[in-house]
Design brief:
The protein is globular. The strands form nine sheets. The chain has a 22-stranded antiparallel β-barrel. It has one domain: Maltoporin, Chain A (Beta Barrel). A hairpin with a 2-residue loop joins strand 11 (192-203) and strand 12. By secondary structure, the protein is mainly β. Residues 58-171 form the TonB-dependent receptor plug domain. InterPro entries: Beta-barrel_TonB, Beta-barrel_TonB_sf, Plug_dom, Plug_dom_sf, TonB-dep_rcpt-like. This is TonB-dependent receptor. Residues 279-676 form the TonB-dependent receptor-like beta-barrel domain. It is a multi-pass membrane protein.
């Protein structure tokens, strides 16, 4: 961390506070209790459900947990899950080279370059969002919206004992709000515009909640920074998001339906940049039905419960990226077989179209043996499948099939499906499916008022490989205002379809013999909860085995070399995370979070050693002001090679401000300003030609009007 960078960061904080102070002097004074955020005492009383599958105070949860309430999400101007995760200790966010809208979340120093985010599991109202092809939730559904979030719970560390695969280094649980009636309109720079609504009604034992959001912008402008086959031009990163969610509850039965669409164009994607031709279109639908049985109340809020559920998820990905620009420089020889065989100079685009489905049924149970002894248990079966996924592009597919010649497609049928090489058809996937089942059992025992023991085990079985056993254990000791947690957990990450079942594409080839990755994590947590401040320090150590890395292999397909994922050895890392919250008075809150990698993984990981973030919130009757300042340390972009100096991306500070004004009991106005100082940020990508990083967006602002009814 350089001294000049530190000075710059503190200067930003000072300027932000001065701006707040100026605003304080110029506002009228009115009192609206609904605008005041939760006090520290109220925050500490919030119970988290993701760590124990049952509402549990944070200090008693056998995990490292961070919670965000709806008040915090709105006060900090957080729009998406990706923005929220940047404020979680131990989590680094990195813009991925994936259609302009992708971000990768690195939990505890691993895989910052994985846009699919396959190391973490994301749940919404109990339903899994992760899909089987890439393995993550944030590839198929990017920029997960928080417009109707009531609470977001984030676990750092393994969660496979309760949740199975993908709960490898973290679990995110989004709980939506079903009790709001409001309409929101917003607009800002970059031609941003959007609208959102939430409504609900009750009739006898029936409760219905409906919510929806639309958001679009034209993207930021980026001066030419990448050369694609001799062509270098300015670009932009437009984005479109559509979400709708329906919740129906009748007595003990519930229904959840979600549908969302994402569209991203231009920018840099998979090593290509062709404005106007590249696109990433995503569509997802999710249906969940559940019924709960409750019986034999032991004490208040400690009823025995059995939840039966069934889920279905459908997803479509329609993807095109540039293969060659129009009239590339230097020219490409048609005889090479890489370009139009008739000598055309048209741009060449290609990609794939895929459809996925997964269905899951199961039970989750809570059994209280007595007031201090809780048993969690469950069983689920899941079927994951993918249809034939053809390659598509602007070539004449019939001509390619019959003659083997690459000829541009006619304008009236610009994109066609099907790709042949030497008379043989190639698709990214043939129709594939697999069955997965898992069962878990966990015992939580409050030995006395000070000591709590937790132990759990889970067995998962996949068709492709042998069963996987995950263990979890922990001891929690509470004394006065202090608590200590000693935790040990195991998790696994199952091979995804793209790793084990895909055909050759984009220089990669699948490995049917791939085995699951495993991690064993030890954690020591010390927390303090005082009247007006609280803190938590976590020391963790991860040991990874059967680590999956890409290996360059020859002749998987005759005459073609490609990267193949293979299990190679083990690795480990260690780090420290901290959170500190200070309720200065009833009006002012200050939170500071940070993390530091003490021991890095041996394998190349483009993550910073240090991160720091500060959030502050000030209530002044009808006005609320908040600010976020976060620091990200230097990131290695390329290792030293052949005597050359290693390349490191610069560290940076980012500052965001949000102002809210409660006009009256129904109307709320807010102004969100992101990247206040228009800081230039560079994000890691492995793409050749982007050794100095991928640029992030500059300053953005949104003005929002919210009407409650």
């Amino acid at each position: 961390m350089q001294i000049n960078s530190i000075k710059s960061g503190f200067l930003q904080i000072l300027i932000a506070i001065c701006l707040f102070g100026y605003s304080f002097l110029s506002v009228a004074s009115t009192h609206f209790p609904d605008l005041i955020g939760l006090s520290l005492e109220e925050l500490l009383k919030i119970k988290v459900s993701v760590a124990n599958r049952h509402p549990t105070p944070v200090r008693q949860a056998a995990s490292s947990v961070t919670i965000f309430t709806a008040e915090q999400i709105q006060s900090y101007g957080l729009q998406t899950l990706e923005e929220l995760l940047a404020l979680v200790p131990g989590v680094q966010m990195n813009r991925s080279e994936n259609g302009g809208g992708g971000f990768s979340a690195s939990f505890r120093g691993r895989r910052a370059d994985n846009g699919a985010n396959r190391d973490i599991l994301v749940l919404i109202d109990g339903a899994r969002l992760n899909e089987p092809v890439e393995g993550g939730a944030m590839e198929q559904e990017r920029q997960i919206s928080l417009f109707n979030a009531q609470r977001v719970e984030v676990i750092r560390g393994p969660g496979s004992t309760l949740y199975g695969a993908n709960a490898f280094l973290g679990v995110v649980n989004i709980i939506t709000n079903k009790e709001e009636n409001k309409l929101t309109l917003q607009g800002g720079n970059l031609s941003a515009k959007g609208a959102a609504f939430q409504t609900h009604f009750h009739w006898k034992k029936l409760q219905v909640a409906l919510a929806g959001e639309y958001y679009a912008d034209n993207g930021d402008h980026f001066p030419a920074f990448y050369e694609f086959w001799g062509v270098k031009e300015d670009t932009q990163d437009p984005a479109l998001r559509k979400d709708i969610q329906l919740n129906i509850d009748y007595q003990k039965a519930s229904l959840l339906f979600r549908r969302n669409e994402r569209e991203y164009r231009d920018f840099v994607s998979q090593g290509a940049q062709l404005n106007g031709l590249q696109k990433q279109l995503k569509e997802n639908q999710l249906l969940r039905l559940a019924y709960s049985f409750e019986w034999d109340d032991v004490v208040d809020e400690k009823e025995n419960r059995l939840n039966i559920f069934a889920e279905s998820q459908w997803g479509v990905s329609d993807y095109l990226t540039g293969l060659f620009p129009e009239n590339p420089q230097p020219p490409i020889d048609p005889a090479s077989g890489l370009y139009w065989t008739d000598g055309s100079l048209d741009a060449l685009v290609g990609g794939n179209y895929r459809e996925i489905r997964q269905h899951r049924i199961g039970i989750d149970g809570v059994e209280w043996l007595n007031q201090q002894h809780l048993i969690n248990y469950g069983f689920s079966v899941r079927k994951e499948s993918i249809s034939r996924n053809p390659f598509q592009g602007n070539w004449d597919a019939q001509r390619l099939y019959t003659t083997g010649e690459y000829v541009p497609s006619p304008p009236e049928q610009f994109i066609q499906k099907g790709f042949w090489l030497n008379g043989e058809r190639y698709d990214l996937f043939s129709p594939e499916s697999r069955r997965v089942w898992g069962a878990y059992l966990q015992d939580s025992w409050h030995v006395n008022d000070q000591v709590q023991l937790t132990a759990g085990v889970r067995l998962d079985d996949y068709e492709e490989f042998s069963s996987n056993l995950s263990f979890r254990g922990g001891v929690i000791y509470q004394f006065n205002q202090h608590y200590w947690k000693l935790l040990l957990g195991e998790a696994f990450r199952a091979p995804t379809f793209i790793e084990s079942k895909a055909g050759i594409a984009s220089g990669g080839i699948a490995n049917p013999a791939l085995r699951p990755e495993n991690v064993t994590t030890s954690e020591l947590i010390w927390g303090v909860e005082k009247v007006n401040w609280s803190s938590q320090i976590t020391l963790f150590k991860n040991h990874f085995s059967e680590v999956v890395v890409p290996v360059w292999v020859d002749d998987i397909v005759p005459g073609i070399t490609a990267f193949q994922p293979q299990n190679l050895g083990s690795d480990s890392n260690m780090g420290i995370e901290f959170e500190w919250r200070w309720q200065v008075n009833e009006k002012f809150q200050l939170n500071i979070i940070g993390d530091r990698l003490v021991e890095r993984l041996d394998s190349f990981q483009p993550v910073a050693d240090s991160r720091l973030a500060a959030t502050l919130m000030y209530d002044l009757d009808a006005w609320k002001f908040s600010g976020i300042t976060r620091y990200v340390g230097k990131v290695s972009s390329r290792l030293a090679d052949n005597g050359q100096t290693a390349i490191k991306l610069s560290d940076y500070w980012l500052t965001d401000l949000t102002t809210l004004w409660q006009v009256n009991s129904n109307m709320l106005l807010s102004f969100d300003l992101s990247n206040l100082f228009d800081e230039k940020t560079q994000h890691y990508t492995a793409q050749s030609g982007l050794e100095q990083g991928l640029p992030g967006r500059g300053r953005e602002f949104l003005l929002k009007a919210e009407y409650r009814f």
